[in-house]
Amino acid sequence: MTTKPCTICRGRVQEFHDFGMQPLSDAFRRPGDESQEYLFRLAVGMCLDCTMVQLMEEVDRDKMFHESYPFISGGSAGMRAHFEGVATRFLENTTGRGDDFVVELGSNDGTMLSHLADAGMHHLGVEPSAGVARLAVEKGVRVLGDFFEEESAVRIRGEHGPATVIYAANTLCHIPYLDSVFAGVDELLAPDGIMVFEDPYFGDIVEKTSFDQIYDEHFYLFSARSVQELARRHGLELVDVERLPVHGGEVRYTLARAGAREVSDAVTVMIAAEERSGLTEPATLEAFSLRVSDIRRDLVAALTDLRAQGLSVVGYGATAKSATVLNMCGIGPDLIPRIFDNTPAKQGLLTPGSRIPVVDSADFPDPYPDVAVLFAWNHAREITARETGFLDAGGRWLLYVPRVHEM
Ligand code: SAM
Ligand code: TMP
Ligand code: ZN
């Protein structure tokens, strides 16, 4: 296990799990494309100084976020409802002075901002992936097609003035260069403005052994303690935290300029709970790593056994998370011949590394398989509620988080 300098504080990051060589999690491939796939070593460590959990190797951002970035926020009814709730909060709780300006980093297909656009609120999405950004523009959302960082923040400030709210969902954890992002926040944020971001919570990842949250795009796995330290280093303060049930467990962090807002008790409570649970202790991280290895062994054994029984097995949800699982376990079309997914941009392509065909989830019942591995386990309620016919037909859902089991 190696070490590297922390991208937040330059302290020493100690690796605690190595997933081996992995492809880009969203680099779905055309059938017949035999070109060499880009691979990198996916390994994760924790900074011994500021406790920030981070990948040991960084992938160039242009390789991940580009014209054909396939993930869309609006692909889940649950997430559409979640983002409508976020927008409602912004519409109800901003200053009401009429000069509110909400900026969303990683606005993707405009699922959240379209509500602000419809309400006539001054807003801007910042989104480097041009394909998904166009979907937002079609919804009437104003989008800057760029990466958010210091330089683009200066331009936004010059053109639009200060932001009352800077919001980011499942985006900040994707950005290794947070020093530049926070220099940009300092440029753009109004004196009494807030920065709100929500990302997968490291506490949930350890508690649920949801190791598949670790992939190229998820460079950081935040905790309240590490975010508090991150904010402090940039003249900001963590003033509120809120646990969210989405994507397998997230935390919404609210930052304000240091001293500008009262700090909620929730911050102290969450940091104390992290301390009590030993979240940053080496023994906790070692135990996590061992549980990941157990899941790999059990999942491969379960799939091999199902195949030996002659049962038909498929995957459900060609998630970015599934790339970590499939490639770590060496699972290919021999064990899982296809994966169903509702994203048009993924259908007809092969999963990265594992090369499993992705097919339209509308065809799932045609005929139902015996067993479906639920790679989109974070959307379990939504998917199982829709696919009730699968259980009626005798089908079985197989999950691997928090351990290999049937639902
Ligand atoms: N916010 C949406 C959601 O929660 O569903 C989309 C999340 S998606 C996983 C991450 C998005 O962040 C991608 O659309 C990507 O293009 C964008 N992104 C990556 N780096 C960025 C940066 N520096 N500034 C703004 N957006 C960025
Ligand atoms: P995510 O876990 O990153 O949100 O990705 C979810 C994937 O699962 C995405 O490719 C869309 C797919 N999906 C379906 O195929 N059907 C569904 O009902 C839902 C909610 C997601
Ligand atoms: Zn550090």
> Which class do the helix and strand fractions yield?
alpha/beta
Through-space gap between termini? 35 Å
Q: Multimeric state of these chains?
A: single chain
Total count of strands: 18
Low-confidence stretches: none
* Shape verdict: globular
What proportion strand? 15-25%
Reported for the largest beta sheet, the result is: 7 strands, mixed
Bound molecules: S-adenosylmethionine, thymidine-5'-phosphate, zinc ion
Radius of gyration from the alpha-carbon trace, in angstroms? 21 Å
Number of helices: 13
Describe this structure in words.
The chain has 407 residues and is an alpha/beta fold. Helix content is 33%, strand content 23%. The protein is built from 13 helices and 18 strands. The protein has a 7-stranded mixed β-sheet. Strand 5, helix 3 and strand 6 (123-126) form a beta-alpha-beta unit. Helix 5 packs parallel to helix 6. The longest helix has 27 residues, at 282-308. The protein is globular, with a radius of gyration of 21 Å. The protein starts with a strand and ends with a strand. The mean pLDDT is 97. It binds S-adenosylmethionine (SAM), thymidine-5'-phosphate and zinc ion. Residues 65, 69, 71, 73, 105-106, 108, 126-129, 132, 147-149, 169-171, 174-175 line the site of S-adenosylmethionine.
Characteristic key phrases:
seven-stranded mixed beta sheet; globular; binds thymidine-5'-phosphate; binds zinc ion
Strand and helix layout:
Elements: E1 3-5, E2 12-23, E3 39-47, E4 53-55, H1 61-64, H2 77-93, E5 102-105, H3 113-118, E6 123-126, H4 130-138, E7 143-144, H5 150-160, E8 163-169, H6 178-188, E9 189-200, H7 202-208, E10 220-221, H8 224-233, E11 236-244, E12 250-257, H9 265-276, H10 282-308, E13 313-316, H11 320-329, E14 339-341, E15 358-360, E16 371-374, H12 380-386, H13 388-392, E17 396-399, E18 405-406
Parallel strand pairs: 5-6, 5-8, 6-7, 8-9, 13-14, 13-16, 14-15, 16-17
Antiparallel strand pairs: 1-2, 2-3, 3-4, 4-10, 9-12, 11-12, 17-18
Helix pairs in contact: 5-6
S-adenosylmethionine binds next to loops.
